[in-house]
Design a protein that fits this description.
heterodimer; A: mainly alpha; B: two-stranded antiparallel ribbon; 5 helices; 2 strands
């Protein structure tokens, strides 16, 4: 296993370790009746910092254990493929999420005041954030797939 | 990926060069051992520059190291 592959494992691992619990927590917050704004802000900050620290520690340990990473043309080719996959996924997911929420808003019965209830800014932003994290996770997964199994030119 | 295949004789050439290891070849041409492994297994087609570097490392012309097989259905190009 090359150092760049190990690095991709660390990035995928730290992403999943931090953001799966984060989204579960946010889902519970939105399910409850309390205010979500402040709690969501604290959670997103904590998740971002934890992810950064975990990733940095992992990369540092990798550097200590295996020395300087060599990056060659195959790594660059794999990066290009995974970036293409992740951006396509990101755009598709964001468009699907936004159109689904718009549709949900359109088919939701009118409220007692006669206005259409659309998902709020907090929900929409979390959906978009989820799409970004999913695309990033898929990017690392694609990298690992290419390193492990794929034959490509 | 296209239908055409690029095969190579790197394994045999390493054997002929006194069982040169993949790591030695990788160091000589400036890539990782995993890249040499992928090229040998025909899972990765190297760039033209890397192909020339590998051929140069063995002291062979490019066509002695890499072979190109065109897709069968189309046949050879006519002038």
């Amino acid at each position: 296993m090359s150092s760049t592959e190990r690095s991709a494992w660390i990035r995928l691992g730290s992403l999943l370790i931090v953001f799966v619990p984060y989204f579960l927590y946010v889902l519970r917050l939105f399910d409850g009746d309390g205010p979500v704004g402040r709690a969501t802000c604290v959670a997103i900050l904590a998740a971002a910092v934890t992810h950064g620290v975990l990733n940095a520690l992992g990369q540092f340990a990798l550097r200590l254990a295996f020395g300087r990473q060599m990056y060659d043309e195959r790594d660059a080719a794999i990066d290009a493929i995974s970036l293409r996959v992740s951006y396509f996924t990101l755009i598709t997911l964001v468009l699907c999420a936004l159109s689904t929420m718009a549709l949900l808003g359109a088919i939701t019965p009118l409220s007692s005041t006669g206005t259409i209830l659309l998902p709020g800014f907090a929900v929409t932003s979390q959906f978009v954030f989820l799409c970004i994290v999913a695309a990033e996770a898929l990017r690392h997964a694609t990298q690992l797939f290419c390193y492990r199994r794929a034959a490509f030119a | 990926m296209s239908d055409a295949t690029i095969t190579n004789n790197i394994r045999r050439l390493r054997f002929d060069a006194g069982e040169m290891t993949q790591q030695t070849l990788a160091d000589e041409v400036g890539v990782t051992r995993q890249t040499i492994l992928a090229i040998e297994a025909a899972k990765y087609a190297p760039s033209l520059e890397l192909a020339f570097r590998i051929a140069y490392a063995f002291g062979q012309p490019l066509e002695a190291v890499f072979q190109y097989e065109a897709p069968k259905a189309k046949g050879p190009r006519r002038p």
